Amino acid sequence: MKLNLKMRISGISLVETMVAASVISIAILGGMTYRYYSALDGRRAIIQTTAARAALMLCESWRGEGGDENYEPAGHLSSSNFVITSGLGPQVPNGYTLLGKYVIEYNGIKCYATLSFRDEQENLRLLNVSIAWPSRDRGENEIGDMDKLFGLTTYINY
């Protein structure tokens, strides 16, 4: 009588181990990429919201002053964390008269604003605020780095 015993060795082969490590690496890399881009998009949203709020504050403050041609936003809106200084800004829209160009810094975010106006009819003036900011944070920003622009226009009877 002959015994035919086959021993079966169970375990994981090197190929299986490498496939499992590759799958886990891809999953971890995907999660890290998602987290990075989520944080980046969150920062962009904060910068864009800050610029839009600054434009609204400038426009409403100027409107509250009756669209005055001598309006100076630094005297009306500057505070310890919202600093407005004269400087460079976006171009003036065609047909508008320049009131001033300003640099606005708020919580470490820098944007550039241009205030301009146009008399549409007798006693009707258009007030325009243009704000420019960078789409990504690249350290010290200059007017040439600005690649996003937001414009806000309102009417005033004067």
Order of helices and strands: HHEEEEE
What is the radius of gyration computed over CA atoms, rounded to a whole number of angstroms? 29 Å
Strand content: 25-35%
- Counted up, domains total 1
Terminus-to-terminus distance: 117 Å
**Content-based structural category:** alpha+beta
* Unreliable parts: none
Biggest sheet statistics: 5 strands, antiparallel
What is the helical fraction, as a range of percent? Answer: 25-40%
Give the number of helices.
Answer: 2
Number of DSSP strands? 5
Q: Reading side by side through the largest sheet, how are the strands ordered?
A: 1-2-3-4-5
| Overall morphology | rod-shaped
In round numbers, the mean pLDDT is 87
List the defining traits of the structure above.
5-stranded antiparallel beta sheet; alpha+beta; 158 residues; 5 strands
Would you mind describing this structure in some detail?
The structure is a single chain. The chain has 158 residues and is of the alpha+beta class. It has one domain. It is 35% helix and 30% strand. The chain is built from two helices and five strands, in the order ααβββββ. It has helices at 14-64, 73-77, and strands at residues 82-86, 97-106, 109-121, 124-133, 148-157. The protein has a five-stranded antiparallel beta sheet. The longest helix is centred in the N-terminal third of the chain and has 51 residues, at 14-64. It is rod-shaped. The mean pLDDT is 87.
